[in-house]
Every structure is written in structure tokens, then in C-alpha cells.
Amino acid sequence: MEVKTRAFKGKANETLADPVLQKSLENVYSGFHLRRIQAGGATPGWDEQRDRARAIKAHTIANLDYYLDMLVRNVEAKGGKVHFADDGKEAARFVVDLARSRGVKTVIKSKSMVSEEIGLNDLLEAESIEPVETDLGEYIIQLARETPYHIIAPAIHKTPEQVAELLAAKSGGPKKTTAKEMTAVARTLLRDAFQRADMGVTGVNFAVAETGSITLVTNEGNGRMCTSAPRIHVALMGMEKVVPSMADLSAFLRILIRSATGQRISAYVSVVNGPRAAGDEDGPEEFHLVIVDNNRSRLLKDAALRESLYCIRCGACMNACPVYRKVGGHSYGWVYPGPIGAVVSPVMSGLKEGKALPFASSLCGACREVCPVRIDIPSMLLHLRSELAEGADRSQRSAGVVDRASFRLWRFGMSGRGRFDLGARLVRFVLWPLSRRGWTGWLPFPLGGWTSTRRFKVPAGRSFVARWRNRQGGA
Ligand code: SF4
């Protein structure tokens, strides 16, 4: 998938000025955030369950090699094949080569953020293999030739009218207006793809190391069709998706589904155990599990960012984030939007490229508060800001000479009482005449960025300390 993180500011401004998108974004709050609050409140021991899930994640990520090894052995014991891919290109190439070697013409896909990450659809199309998204939201996005807006609700920015037009154009039939009619059109179109496809590609919500099983959580049943109807099933997973045991899986299912949609359980939870075994009535002839790194190792080796790998992709941080709810998913410019996207996208796709993202936050902490595994996103954003300003890797730094010099001067001035008083007097001396002429609403570079959206504050005539001393009779 093309990385457009550099365009954050422009895209965010476009979204802010678009009343249709702003209206659609209101659904994020009412449709997801409020439901999650209700679901958590109605779950006995909710906070303890979150603590437990976090502890399992911390243990698993700290012993990732051990659990991945266990997973591989158990998948292979059930007749599946496991492939490791260092990056997105390698993962996508593997799937396409497999499809070509098996004469596959059509691939049906269940929702997979990793497949977005590796740009699988583009590569399949380039090789004349037809990819068909079967999750309704993903299907709409595919028809619109766009990327997902939200990791749980990819088409949340589309109005019913826009969806009706897309489906009518694809089916060649009249425009349907009700949700029921539109779903019927999509079902007819997708049924044909399900029958033609020779390969199903899915994501993985969790992979259970002790049994070699993969788990899919869906509400439309399309995941189950993708894993059982075609003769080949390929599952794509980020390497952090492994959990140790079935008991751990149940802990995660409970918090994932409630945090994502506010449901107690989703309509379908599928546990897939390799290809069809002797005596099975259905299931694929081949099962391939592709475990993708794609710069997750970078997150793993950075102690300050490692806990971003605890993420179970529930989307709750996006729904809670006041920035996401105004700038929308496309502004972030890569697969993962919102607060967790502002952490992982710059690291996975290039820190300098995504330098705007760590600053796309007010650091209010809403994301940390709602995260079911209590990921401390604000601290990681601060860490990335500091890396961009003065990190060890100079090639990644984005702060210019003026920025760095200004902040050094600031730090020098703030770290001594006498220097602070002197600095405040100096600033007052410079700004007072400007403010009397009304010029503090527009200051020249390098302060122009500040005054483009607000007036520069002029310090009071006498400092607080001076006035306090005066009140205390000079003491
Ligand atoms: S960071 Fe937490 S809240 Fe955000 S998607 Fe991941 S698990 Fe969900």
C-alpha cells in the first residue's frame, strides 16, 4: 500500500472542511465509542480482564520466539505450511506465486489489515488474478478503489447514497435505497465470487500456539466461507498475533469484541485447524500461514515502543480520539489510523516520512484509557516526538536547525531561576511595543507557525513572582 503519511496536514484540512465526512465521523462516537462504554460497564470484572489480557500480551511478546516456534510446530503437525516474510513485498509475492502455481484465477478475501499493509490486491491484479473482498465494508471500499477509513469499519465514511451508487454501478441494475436491498445486491455479487474462487485469503485475529489454530472474528460469515469453500486457504498474520493457549484466547475474545463493536460476542468466531483432515466433510486441501514481520522487529527491539505490539486491533482508541474523530482515517496516510496508527505507521513505514503523525494528538490520554490492553500510547507519541527532535539516528530527525536551537535556548532559560526571570523580562521588552501596535497576531519566521492559528501571548507587565513578593511585603 502506498505510504501517504507525509500528506497528513493537507488531508486533515480537507476532511475538516468536508461537511459530509464530518457528518459520517459522528457515527464513530455514537456507533462505537458509546457502545464500548456500555459493554465494558456491563461486564463483571472488566478492568481485571483487561489487566489479565495485558499480562498475557506482555509475557507473549517477551517470549515471542518461543511461542512462534510452538505455533509453527503445531500448524505443521496438522498438515499446514508456515512461511515467514521479512517484509510486505515478500509476503505479497509469496501469495501471488502460490496462486499462479496453482492456477488460481479468483481470490476471495476476508478482512485483513495485513493484506492492506502488503498491498496484496494490487499485486494480484497486476498478475491478472481477481481479488474480491467479501467483508461488506471492504467490498464497498474495493468498489470505490479506496483504502479503509477505520480498522473495524472500513467504509464508515461512505453515505448510504454513495454505497447505493457503487453497488448499482457494479451490478448494472437499478439503484437500491434500503440497507436490506443493498445487502441483497452485495450478497448476489459475492455469492458468484465465492463459487468461482480457488483461493481464500484471510487475516488472523489470534493464532493459538499450543494448538496451531487460527481464529477469525467476523459478523458476516464471510470469513468462514473464505476458509472453507476454496481449495486453498492462506492466512496472513502479523507476528505479534500469537497467544499461548486456548484459555488465553478466551480472555482476548471477551475484550476484543466488546471493545470493537460493543457486542458481547460477534456473530461468528471461527477456529481453523489446518487443511481438511481425513473424515472432514469440508475444508481446504491446502492451508498456508504467512507470518509477516514488515518492521515489527523494529518495534520489538525498541523498549519504549514495544508495547504497541500488544495491540489487538479493536479500534477503540480511534473511536475515543478527538483528533481521529475530526480528521478521519485517510489523513493518516497508511493502513493504521488513529492513535495506534500515529505510533506504528511512522516506525513501520519510515519515521521521517510519517513525522507529522506523532504530533497528531493532544495527548489527552483518552486512547490509553479505553485501550483494552492498556497500551500507553501518549508516552510512545512523546518518545517519537523526541526521536524526531534529537534521536540518535540523524537521518530520521525532522526537527530543523532552528527548531533544535530554539528548544536548546528554551531549556537553558527554563533551567535556572535567574535566567528565567531575565528571559521573561527580555520577552516582555520585545513584545510590549509590538502588542501595542497589534502586531502579535502575525509574527515572522520562526514564530509564524504559532501565530498562523493564534495570537502570541504577551507576558503580563509584572510577573507573578514579583506581584507575590510585593504582597508579602518584599519577603
Ligand atoms: S491500541 Fe488498544 S485501543 Fe487501539 S486498536 Fe490497539 S488494542 Fe485497540
Structural overview:
The protein has 475 residues and is of the alpha/beta class. Among the domains are: 43-296, NagB/RpiA/CoA transferase-like (Rossmann fold), CATH 3.40.50; 403-471, no CATH class. It has helices at residues 8-16, 19-41, 46-62, 64-77, 88-101, 113-117, 120-126, 136-144, 160-171, 179-196, 222-228, 246-261, 296-301, 316-320, 324-327, 338-349, 366-370, 377-390, 401-414, 417-436, 448-451, 464-471, and strands spanning 81-85, 106-109, 130-133, 199-202, 206-208, 213-218, 232-238, 242-243, 268-272, 286-292. Helix 2 crosses helix 12 (246-261), helix 3 packs across helix 12 and helix 9 (160-171) crosses helix 10 (179-196). Residues 259, 311-317, 340, 370-373, 375 line the site of iron/sulfur cluster.
By secondary-structure content and strand pairing, the structural class works out as: alpha/beta
Task: Identify the strand order in the major beta sheet.
Answer: 1-10-7-4-2-3
Bound molecules: iron/sulfur cluster
- What fraction of residues sit in β-strands? 5-15%
Number of strands: 10
Q: Output the radius of gyration.
A: 26 Å
Mean pLDDT: 92
Which CATH top level class of the domain at 43-296 fits? Alpha Beta
Span between termini: 65 Å
CATH architecture of the domain at 43-296: 3-Layer(aba) Sandwich
* Count of DSSP H/I helices: 22
Primary descriptors:
six-stranded parallel β-sheet; Rossmann fold; elongated; about 475 residues; alpha/beta; four-stranded mixed β-sheet; about 10% strand; binds iron/sulfur cluster; 22 helices
